[in-house]
Amino acid sequence: MIRGILFLTGFGISVAGGISTIAYLNLFATGLSLVEFLLFLFTRPEFYLLPIGIILIAISIYLSGNSNPSFRDKE
Fold it and tell me: How far is CA 53 from CA 17, 26, 29, 65, in A?
């Protein structure tokens, strides 16, 4: 249950960060260089939502429910 909530939260956060990062690509049309664009991007708090969301997704995937996973039932 916790893994699902963590996954969906991470997905939502990463989508918000990714959409804002893609929207900022329009700044290239105003004449910004790549260096100016990256400097601007690192000052925006929305940019950091993308890596935070990806980290939450990775944690939810690799988080194990129990310490001793059993792969087969003993017969």
Answer: 8, 23, 28, 21
